[in-house]
Amino acid sequence: MNNIAGIDLGTTFSALAILNTIGKPEIIPNAEGERITPSAVCFDEADSAIIRVGIEAVNSRQLDPERCVRWIKRHMGDSSWRKNIDGREWSPDEISSLILKKLKQDCSVEHGEITDAVISVPAHFDEVRRKATMDAGTMAGLNVIGIVNEPVAAALYYATTHNISGRVLVYDLGGGTFDATILDIEGSQINIVCSQGDHALGGIDLDKSILEMFEKAYREKFNTELVASEEERAKYEDEAEDVKKTLSRRPSAKKMLYGSAGSMRLEITREAFEKAVSPLITRTDLLIDVILKEAKCKPADITRVLLVGGSTRIPMVHKRLEQKFGFAPEIAVNVDECVALGAAIHAGVTKL
User: Fold this and answer.
1) Does residue 26 sit in the same domain as residue 116?
2) Which of 5, 87, 91, 153 could form an SS bridge with 343, CB 3.0 to 4.6 Å?
3) pLDDT digits (tens, 9 = 90+) for 54-100
4) Is 305 found in the same domain as 190?
5) Which domain holds residue 256?
6) What is the CA 174 to chain-centroid distance, rounded?
7) 245 Rama class: left (phi>0) / alpha (psi -120 to 50) / beta
8) Which residues are CB-contacts of 222 (< 8 A; sequence separation ≥ 6)?
9) Global confidence as pTM
10) For residue 162, what pLDDT band results from cuts at 50, 70 and 90?
11) Looking at the predicted structure, is the pLDDT value of residue 2 above 80?
12) Rg, the chain, Cα only
């Protein structure tokens, strides 16, 4: 089944997995040797036919942000959104197809041509966004044999690698979207009870909070703005993301800020970060309350909380969930990879 893939087309990162010879899902590294690929595209200034995808595009963005696109998933299904590059207008599904094409090509080098794929989508995606995702796959040269909800894909991977059954909550806080889903799991049977999502809540919104902390500190010290161009904004957006990741591992992070009035050293504590993003995390709490009410169940009825998405590494997320449910959420799988791995399992089952 090496020619069948499961793909997690994410807001900030994407990943591709196949089923190996014994039917076990495995992530296929990209050409750079990385297991996940930044969902970023950059069109070369000298020749727009040269298109960089992944880490090259992220690095190019600080030099020429106008010719780069990140976080395109937030625009999927939006017929009014276009990116104009040298007179050629690119739609969200066309941009997404370039990301999928890189995943497909990089995998095909070592594992043969990928023909069929299941692509994951947030549970709250409507039919327009789902069709746009399928269209992106078709443009990338894939036969899209199915679309799977991200929480279902993640739960499928959890369930096949761990002994999980009963009523489960999947808390999926990714780069650009949030999903809260209640599922009933019995063996390989997974049934969605209810789901709620927010397509404007994810890791990039947490990054914006850190960028605002950068700007506020610089303004207070120099009485002028830190960010004076789109190139500088791209640079500090990337640095804000780095600070967020550091604060998931350590109690504080230090950063040098370089603006027109001079440079300054800034230290951000985890406590200050948590205070800044608390309103955003509270939005996830409220959506959990909504689905518990929809499912006519109490927190005590939930047997497991499964984490999905890189932003679930934030300690505050664990703390809030443990306070609500009375037990720690599961951290047994790689939260960046479990959706692609589950999508590969789903693809294998679909082809049987």
Assistant:
1) yes
2) 153
3) 999 999 998 999 999 999 999 999 999 999 999 999 999 999 999 99
4) yes
5) 203-274
6) 4
7) alpha
8) 259, 261, 262, 264
9) 0.94
10) confident
11) no
12) 20
